[in-house]
Amino acid sequence: MIRQFCYWMSQLQALTALRRFK
Q: pLDDT value at position 9?
C-alpha cells in the first residue's frame, strides 16, 4: 500500500512538473 502511495505521489509530482514546465 505504501509503495503504491509513493508511486502515486511520484506520478502527481511528475504531472505538476510537466504543467509548470509547460
A: 97
The C-alpha atoms of residue 20 and residue 17 are separated, in whole angstroms, by 5
b/e 1-22 (16+ beta carbons within 10 angstroms → b):
eeeeeeeeeeeeeeeeeeeeee
Report CA dihedral (10, 13, 15, 19) to the nearest 10 degrees.
Answer: -160
Q: What's the pLDDT tens digit per position in 1-22?
A: 799 999 999 999 999 999 988 7
pLDDT at 1: 79
